């Protein structure tokens, strides 16, 4: 009998302990409260329902939101700081928790995970393939009516920037400058002068110049490849574009396949850049920062990069950009370029946000500050009008002039691919950079996800 | 009172909190996984029952078998190369003076407590083909022919990652072996000394047989640790080049979170759990079957 009493007592104790553990966080339930009905303040201040003037208290409660930004480069980091600094002035009554995500891989992984777990921040930056499953899951709101009603849409100088997604809805607040980003081949002028080298005008000249640079112990060209898949995101497309821009347009419209001889030839040119040591050994494992650093420290002569890095790149003395070396005599490299912006790129608002209207305002604020920052710091033009002073450097001016000169602007093919296709495409693009994987193999391995993509399963 | 504590029910009650939490957070989540494995699931929505299609997809996937093969390679490198080295180091450590022993015990344990990010970044720098210490060292000692693009070549990427993993845990395993060695009564060593046994004979005939339970334990945690390898691969090669260094868990992650094929990911998870259980069962039944007490 005594034993039985002990067991029952012990059992009760165990359950009490478990209950204590399980209910230990019960007080934090107020975090889910609606604005204006806030119970958050009660738990924080220790006040309860007995409070005499709950409505006055809630009016003073700041709106708590979370904003996730992608800050892969110095310009974005500076913009993030600008957003924090100006928040109190521009959006009084907002308390924003900033989540700054570094590399493209981390940003993608976070978006994918948040999307699946349903924990997307109130406002977040999205673009390209990761946006499709977020839209499909209904985790973002259509911003069209919001920006029309509050007049924010009028701030865009070019309505083309507000191009909706394929379903006619607009899921992200464009920053306005994406469109002007393009892949450039930057080079260290002093290295070319030191070794008496001319700027390569053709692809063959590029191979010859690279051989000389290698003989001198200088890495001819770097491209970020590990965390930012430079091959997949622009180099493959540039190689297609230089041969025939129509190839990119047709592939983007699903009019041709990856087995098209022109596509395979372009992919093999990327492989050749590795085999001919234009790109350094182990380039497939070269991080964004490492690639930039090799160029800035003059260990590499050329740097294939997107122009959002221009403000950082031009800090290195004696830097300029060259036109991409001509591949096909019929295509003038001065007439073609690849733009970056795509529908669904910009700041999106989570449909699960408890403060949708406030989150839309925050998304507008984020887009506006980004546009301002990229114009002031990044020296980049933007279609989203702000009071930023366009104090462009000589290099930035020439970049813009050349961009405006181009008569054919091909889309960022990779950004328009669905999730499955995008993942496989990047994986195989990384294989190309080993120099052991051919365009033919690429075409064969991509065939299955490509067929699924064409059937419309993004 | 003593009868109460010796009672099986009392033991059950004492372990109940842990068992309940284990069931809730480890066993229970497996059941939804099993359900998802029979559906086309994108992580959010069930898009229809597909029967055994996901299982067929995984079992016919060359990528899955390639990643499983990679896991086997990591086990071979990290366990069957790493564990003998750890054991040897533990035996040598046992013969060192207390001061030196304390120093090595502490320093060799450090990599195991460091973040994988730190370890991965360190080895990425070491393996860097142009400026990395490894290739530089090979050139310096006249072995320039052995220089490789360690993490950028499909042939060497996985062994390089496995080596970094081995390096991180070699000290931890050494400490575990050393603890086992210290638990062997000194009288056995004294008897061996009187019988004229040397270092080799003492270790082979006395230490190793009496250490078998520790060996079994270290073997299980090492093999399972190698099978669930993900962090080093993710940090050092991102599974690449291409998919050259993917492990099963990386493949699971890729199919679920990159391709949004959570049904397929669940199948891989289930196969992985089954494989781990089988391997643990085999090690427990095939290694050190005869229990030695001292």
From TrEMBL, chain A:
Residues 46-61 have a biased composition (Basic and acidic residues). Residues 27-61 are annotated as: Disordered. InterPro entries: Bact_solute-bd_prot1 (IPR050490), SBP (IPR006059). This is Extracellular solute-binding protein. It comes from Cohnella silvisoli.
UniProtKB/TrEMBL annotation, chain B:
This is Sugar ABC transporter permease. Belongs to the binding-protein-dependent transport system permease family. Pfam families: BPD_transp_1. CDD domains: TM_PBP2. Gene3D superfamilies: MetI-like. Keywords: Cell membrane, Membrane, Transmembrane, Transmembrane helix, Transport. The chain crosses the membrane at residues 9-31, 74-94, 106-126, 157-178, 262-287. It is found in: Cell membrane.
């Amino acid at each position: 009998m005594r034993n039985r009493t002990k067991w029952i007592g012990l059992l009760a104790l165990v359950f009490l302990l478990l209950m204590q553990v399980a209910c230990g966080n019960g007080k934090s339930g107020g975090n889910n409260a609606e604005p204006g009905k806030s119970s958050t303040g009660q738990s924080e201040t220790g006040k309860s329902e007995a409070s005499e003037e709950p409505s006055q208290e809630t009016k003073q409660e700041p709106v708590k939101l979370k904003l996730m930004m992608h800050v892969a480069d110095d310009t974005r980091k500076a913009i993030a700081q600008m957003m924090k600094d100006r928040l109190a002035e521009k959006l009084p009554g907002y308390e924003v928790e900033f989540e700054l995500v570094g590399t493209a891989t981390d940003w993608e992984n976070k978006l994918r995970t948040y999307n699946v777990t349903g924990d997307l921040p109130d406002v977040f930056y999205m673009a390209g393939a990761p946006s499709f499953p977020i839209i499909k899951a209904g985790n973002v709101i259509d911003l069209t009516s919001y920006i029309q009603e509050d007049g924010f849409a009028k701030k865009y100088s070019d309505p083309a920037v507000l191009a909706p997604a394929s379903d006619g809805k607009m899921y992200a607040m464009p920053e306005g400058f994406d469109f002007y980003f393009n892949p450039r081949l930057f080079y260290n002028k002093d290295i070319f002068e030191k070794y008496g080298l001319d700027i390569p005008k053709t692809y063959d000249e590029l191979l010859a110049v690279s051989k000389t640079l290698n003989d001198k112990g200088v890495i001819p060209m770097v491209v970020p490849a590990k965390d930012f898949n430079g091959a997949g995101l622009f180099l493959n497309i540039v190689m297609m574009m230089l041969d025939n821009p129509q190839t990119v347009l047709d592939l983007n419209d699903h009019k041709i396949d990856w087995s098209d001889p022109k596509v395979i030839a372009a992919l093999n040119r990327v492989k050749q850049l590795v085999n001919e040591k234009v790109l350094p050994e182990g380039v497939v494992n070269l991080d964004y920062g490492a690639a930039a650093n090799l160029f800035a420290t003059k260990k590499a002569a050329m740097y294939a990069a997107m122009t959002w890095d221009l403000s950082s790149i031009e800090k290195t003395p004696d830097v300029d950009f060259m036109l991409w070396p001509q591949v096909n005599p019929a295509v003038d490299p001065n007439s073609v370029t690849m733009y970056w912006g795509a529908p669904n790129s910009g700041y999106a608002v989570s449909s699960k946000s408890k403060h949708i209207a406030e989150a839309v305002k925050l998304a507008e604020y984020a887009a506006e500050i980004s546009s301002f920052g990229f114009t002031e710091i990044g020296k980049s033009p933007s279609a989203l009008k702000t009071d930023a002073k366009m104090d462009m450097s000589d290099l930035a001016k020439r970049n813009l002039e050349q961009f405006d000169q181009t008569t054919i602007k091909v889309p960022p093919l990779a950004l328009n691919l669905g999730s499955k296709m995008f993942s496989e495409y990047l994986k195989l693009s990384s294989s190309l950079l080993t120099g052991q994987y051919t365009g033919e193999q690429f075409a064969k391995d991509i065939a299955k996800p490509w067929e699924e993509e064409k059937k419309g399963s993004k | 009172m003593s009868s109460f504590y010796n009672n099986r029910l009392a033991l059950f009650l004492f372990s109940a909190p842990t068992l309940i939490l284990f069931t809730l957070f480890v066993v229970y989540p497996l059941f939804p996984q099993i359900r998802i494995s029979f559906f086309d699931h994108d992580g959010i929505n069930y898009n229809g029952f597909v029967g055994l299609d996901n299982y067929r997809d995984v079992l016919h996937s060359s990528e899955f078998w390639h990643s499983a093969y990679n896991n086997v390679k990591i086990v071979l490198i990290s366990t069957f190369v790493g564990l003998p080295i750890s054991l040897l180091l533990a035996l040598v450590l046992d013969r060192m003076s207390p001061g030196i022993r304390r120093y090595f015990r502490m320093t060799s344990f450090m990599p195991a407590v460091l973040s994988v990010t730190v370890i991965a970044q360190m080895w990425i720098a070491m393996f860097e083909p142009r400026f990395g210490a490894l290739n530089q060292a090979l050139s310096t000692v006249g072995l320039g022919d052995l220089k490789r693009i360690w993490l950028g070549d499909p042939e060497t990427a996985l062994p390089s990652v496995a080596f970094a993993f081995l390096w991180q845990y070699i000290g931890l395993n050494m400490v575990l072996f050393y603890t086992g060695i210290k638990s062997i009564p000194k009288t056995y060593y004294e008897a061996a000394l009187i019988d004229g046994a040397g270092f080799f004979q003492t270790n082979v005939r006395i230490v190793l047989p009496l250490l078998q339970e520790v060996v079994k334990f270290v073997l299980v945690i090492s093999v399972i640790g190698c099978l669930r390898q993900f962090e080093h691969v993710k940090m050092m090669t991102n599974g690449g080049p291409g998919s050259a260094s993917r492990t099963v868990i990386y493949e699971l992650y890729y199919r679920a979170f990159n391709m949004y094929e959570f049904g397929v990911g669940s199948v891989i998870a289930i196969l992985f759990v089954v494989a781990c259980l089988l391997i643990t069962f085999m090690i427990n039944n095939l290694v050190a079957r005869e229990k030695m007490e001292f």
